[in-house]
Each structure stands twice: as C-alpha cells, then as structure tokens.
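lol ok so funny story. i was supposed to be doing the assay writeup but got distracted and ended up predicting the structure for this chain instead. priorities right. anyway since i did it might as well share w the group, maybe its usefull for someone
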Amino acid sequence: MTNSFIPELTAQVNDFVAERDWEQFHSPKNLAMAMIVEAAELVEHFQWLTQQESAALDVQKKSAVADELADVLVYLVCLADRLEINLEEAVLLKMRKNRAKYPVGKARGNARKYSEF
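and the output, tada:
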C-alpha cells in the first residue's frame, strides 16, 4: 500500500506522547482499555437515536462524533505501534479473510454471520 497516512499519523501521535512522557502508561492493556472507553463515548452520541436520526446528525453532534472517532483512531494507532503491527497490512489481510468468509453470493443483502450461511 502506498498511502502514508498511517505512518505519518503514528509519528505525530508518538511525538505527542513522547513530549508528555506518557510512554510509561501505554502498555498494550492500557491502550486497549482506553480505546474501548473512547468507543463507548462514541456510542453514547447515538444512544436512543432512531436509525434516521443517527444518519442525520446536526453540525455540533457531528463534530463531537468526529472527536470521538479521532480518539479511537489515536489509541488504535498507538496500540498497533506498541505491538509492532502494521495496520495497513493487517487491514488488507483481514479484508481477504472477510471476502472468503462472506462471499457476495451468500452475504449480499443480509446481516447474518458467516457461520449462519
């Protein structure tokens, strides 16, 4: 993959963390837990909304959701870096696996899990 977004983002996040001497707190366990906390904060913005309301957020709510998405991504990037996992390669590999588990002929238009086919 030729995109340099993830490596550039990782470098910026690592600089931010190093400037604050936070590496000492960034064990894989802590990073995974922090990412889940941020994911919960993301979900909170959609709690009790209808399908239609969740797809039509106002500017203020969309901005808050964007902040939470960014927080989740930052912790994900930190965790991958800490575990020396190349996210770009991991995503491409996972997509190949998903294509095999969810062939278009069986998965198109339904939300069943691959084990239910």
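Residues 59-82 form the longest helix (24 residues). The mean pLDDT is 96.
back to the writeup now i swear
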